[in-house]
Amino acid sequence: xxxxxxxxxxxxxxxxxxxxxxxxxxxxxxxxxxxxxxxxxxxxxxxxxxxxxxxxxxxxxxxxxxxxxxxxxxxxxxxxxxxxxxxxxxxxxxxxxxxxxxxxxxxxxxxxxxxxxxxxxxxxxxxxxxxxxxxxxxxxxxxxxxxxxxxxxxxxxxxxxxxxxxxxxxxxxxxxxxxxxxxxxxxxxxxxxxxxxxxxxxxxxxxxxxxxxxxxxxxxxxxxxxxxxxxxxxxxxxxxxxxxxxxxxxxxxxxxxxxxxxxxxxxxxxxxxxxxxxxxxxxxxxxxxxxxxxxxxxxxxxxxxxxxxxxxxxxxxxxxxxxxxxxxxxxxxxxxxxxxxxxxxxxxxxxxxxxxxxxxxxxxxxxxxxxxxxxxxxxxxxxxxxxxxxxxxxxxxxxx
Length: 400
Known about the structure:
The protein is α/β, with parallel strands linked by helices. It folds into two domains: 2-188 and 376-396, Rossmann fold (3-Layer(aba) Sandwich), CATH 3.40.50.2000; 192-374, Rossmann fold (3-Layer(aba) Sandwich), CATH 3.40.50. It has 16 helices and 14 strands. Helix 1 (17-31) crosses helix 16 (377-396), helix 2 packs parallel to helix 3 and helix 3 runs parallel beside helix 5. The two termini are 19 Å apart.
């Protein structure tokens, strides 16, 4: 099975969970016997050609120059031209590919062009939709343009993969994809990233973020409205009134960073909030291991890979009852679910976690077991490979 995969994100260029998903999926597909060539734009460095395993290779494509960076849609279109050209070279070099697999709208143009040029079936993974990110409004021209490309990608795809049942339903509603065209395959997590820190003395590292007497409530994500960290700041006074030893550590960057800092200062709790900005993955992983509670107050969450990461690090999870979170987390069994957009509910969930250690420990054990059994990448790669095989078999039965 030879696969040509296209993704806008791949380390070191990570924005959300998409890049992490692809980085884990590629080598695990290879371990199951697939030959995978990944095309990705070279946006934040990395080698032009990088062999990950004996049968998986990353091909980074130089983005076009002279493009107005403010015109993001135009940048995407121009970059897709470069991706298509590179894809054609790979077809010429290696010959037949069994499957083209495109991740999200950002690589739709190149994925669809290569599908038609080489009559190769296309599988599309939709990680999130513009409809969902905008709360269903699609008010701006850019939002409507992205939505149209998402529809086009799912229309052209032989099969569509979503990471959760929530996203399956959203794709059906927003993009009019027939339900029987969709396969639900979750994200996963590599436990070894966190297990390497179990039992390691992290005292010196921890001191960079909190006093030894303080308990850490940790959050990580893009600082945008849909991630809900404005609600965590608003919950701060109620948490600190009953647990004054808490230190909130929020890792990530985004357009709301300055306003969140300012809001914490205006509430008189600025010293209790540490907004780190961007931090390396290794530091984020260690903070998960150290966290007394990992908090994710999202308003919109297609899957919620951060919750799996917290579970793998044995961090107690408090998350909002939205999207993929409600599929990963069983309330009071593997974590605590709270009401989205409700700082009082969020404060309750944090305080319950901190003040009932026995119950919290049991949830942590349940969550770790779930991650081990269900959300491992070997299983996820196997399910993805089954989709590929189904498409190849169906294609052989057609005249296309």
